[in-house]
Amino acid sequence: MDEYLRGSCLCGGIRYRAALPASHASHCYCTMCQKQHGAAAGSYANLASAGFVVEQGAALVTEYASSTHGRRGFCRVCGSTLFWRSEESPDRIAITLGTMEPEYAGAVEKEWYPENKPAWLPRR
């Protein structure tokens, strides 16, 4: 079994790896994630930031300070959202599940801000 999660942006300009284990995967329904992803939620795997390496295209990674403590990383060419990190927890990084190759095989264990789930999202 691979010791890393791997992925890339839509245009392929950025390739990354993130060392396992993931502490959890989550869907975040906060309005910032919804706007960043253009979707109902941002979906992430939470890992140690020390194990996150941009293997290709580091110059294409752009970060946006979306709050006083949060930074969102994305590709400046294609706009793919790659990660979210908190300056309050610099030892952790949340990598977007949709950019992983192969797809993330773990379970999504947490939902953040479920009260913000859009009405158009299917209910269980």
Automatic annotation (TrEMBL):
The keyword Transcription does not apply. PROSITE patterns: CENP_V_GFA. Transmembrane segments: none annotated. GO terms for molecular function: carbon-sulfur lyase activity; metal ion binding. Residues 5-113 form the CENP-V/GFA domain. InterPro entries: CENP-V/GFA, Mss4-like_sf. SUPFAM superfamilies: Mss4-like. The keyword Lyase applies. Pfam families: GFA. Keywords: Lyase, Metal-binding, Zinc. Belongs to the Gfa family. PANTHER family: CENP-V_GFA DOMAIN-CONTAINING PROTEIN-RELATED, GFA DOMAIN-CONTAINING PROTEIN. This is GFA family protein. The lineage of its organism: Bacteria, Pseudomonadati, Pseudomonadota, Betaproteobacteria, Burkholderiales.
